[in-house]
């Protein structure tokens, strides 16, 4: 059954596995109703939490497995393997004379390290496992040296002797003429049964040998484990009677079927935050806000992304750990600031927050699990921003422990009172996040005041208004279920893939022929995913640069080089403050973005309300003094309900703080719209 045919079945299940909790959302397309749940993650075997999530979803919806049309999944299996260096033992097969490309790498050194103390990280494949084959293709695709198949057989024997379980094939200039590389991969698969073999022309067929080699190696290293994991999920779903297709989240903000993921699992690396961005876009669009800045604040980190006109921009300059991973991914910035970030006083007497985190165990002191260090969450508790009971009453916060942690670790060493110390912790955490927001906005030619802020994640809605005040933003949009938005975002994602080809000569004929070839690849992908023609979309993109530059900018291809050069110059000026009217513009790489529409929706209209009624009051300590804040139950709010701060909105997955000077309104889309009052500042 195809992923689009499955739309005829009403139930869609989304499972997003995090480091501490697994979030589950199930939606009934017939009624528009949705249910959410959380279950502890199972790091030893993520499929256990996945299956528990599926069962919880079906129980919550009182649905039958036969009614499930889609199962969508966000996983960190590939990400964790790469970050922890636990990928399969791999070899690299490359063109004779170029075996040290990987080891040489680039000359750039991370800014955060000391120039003299920095040691180049050990490559994922050492030189001893880099094997050469005799062949040579020019940058224009001309065969200079025919492929010597005897050298390929020798490389296969070397791989077998090295005891590898994965092989990456990356030949010089294979992005221009992949025939040699594909033949090498074919021969290796035949000679090495049971060993994962991947070719760069199937992973990243673009210029830059080092980055292309790395991407291919990382893909090969995670291929065995991800393939096994996906197959296990499919078997377990079938065992539960769920015959729906399994779709997995990609770093580009789309999903893909299990077959495509098994072939190129590296596309799932860093995909976790992408689902939240997709969900935020859907919520904001339903509420009428096309220009947004998203801030996803979890326990250890904050992910920030900017969207203008509802467009999620992609980048191919991403990194994972020590390695560049130039696969298309959502353009965002991540910093070590979250609810579990530790607050401490440095030897110099300064207050610092993060990037170290208390983690899930023991966690913040207020969790009552033995933690004694002050965290951002403890600061919120000390100030009264969080009510004593969370998760629908299933979790009781240890307020005394939170206050003691802030007092011992921050207030006493700095000679401050408890509340001033707690406010200082939050001020530094907020300042760190504001700096990241400016990276995606001001540094890229955007004024953050022209955008609405969308905070989500378990801690996001606690910081939304404070961040907006620091940035001059007057509107904050809190999603209906901010704590599980990454799971919900899976339901809003479409099938998505990118196809790229680098050019050595960008003549009009070569450009058109290149795009035509990419469209053929996209058509084959659409067919594999069984996407009907009416649900197919493609978009031509050009990666361009000024002559002499080392990086490219992506612009929509307008149809001819002159118009593309004009669009490139405008984007260059918006990002960097200048253009080069006399400079030569080069078209380096063609990219085709393909989308298979799944018509997912995560919003449902709310009925009109009769006025918001508080369920109680809670003492909160603000900078201006102590006030009684009204408590509201998010589940009881309806369209049009309004109330002014100070207020606290509670729900199962998150808590929203509405400070004095802000007012809240429930939108018919289900989003909570917070605005700074005109006479307040």
Q: Averaging pLDDT over every residue, what do you get?
A: 90
Would you tell me the structural class of the helices and strands? Answer: alpha+beta
- What would the principal axes of the Cα set say about the shape? globular
CATH homologous superfamily placement of the largest domain: ATPase, nucleotide binding domain
Low-confidence stretches: none
CATH topology value of the largest domain:
Nucleotidyltransferase, domain 5
Q: Which band does the percent of strand residues land in?
A: 25-35%
Domain Acetophenone carboxylase-like C-terminal: 615-671
Domain Hydantoinase/oxoprolinase N-terminal: 13-190
Pfam families: Hydant_A_C, Hydant_A_N, Hydantoinase_A
GO biological process, one term: glutathione metabolic process
Give structural attributes:
single chain, 5-stranded mixed β-sheet, alpha+beta, Rossmann fold, 5-oxoprolinase (ATP-hydrolyzing) activity, 4 domains, 16 helices, ACX-like_C, Nucleotidyltransferase, domain 5, 681 residues
What does this structure look like?
α2 (77-84) crosses α7 (209-239) and α12 packs across α13. The chain folds into 4 domains: 5-81 and 227-268, ATPase, nucleotide binding domain (Nucleotidyltransferase, domain 5); 87-222, 3-Layer(aba) Sandwich (Rossmann fold); 273-493, ATPase, nucleotide binding domain (Nucleotidyltransferase, domain 5); 495-596, no CATH class. β23 (389-390) and β24 (395-396) form a beta hairpin. A 6-stranded mixed β-sheet has the order 3-2-1-4-11-12, sandwiched between helices. Strands 13, 14, 15, 20 and 25 form a 5-stranded mixed β-sheet that branches. A 4-stranded parallel β-sheet has the order 6-5-9-10, with helices on both faces. With 681 residues, the protein is α+β, with helices and mostly antiparallel strands. The longest helix is centred in the N-terminal third of the chain and has 31 residues, at 209-239. The model has no long low-confidence stretch (mean pLDDT 90). It is built from 16 helices and 37 strands. Residues 615-671 form the Acetophenone carboxylase-like C-terminal domain. Residues 13-190 form the Hydantoinase/oxoprolinase N-terminal domain. Residues 214-498 form the Hydantoinase A/oxoprolinase domain. This is Hydantoinase/oxoprolinase family protein.
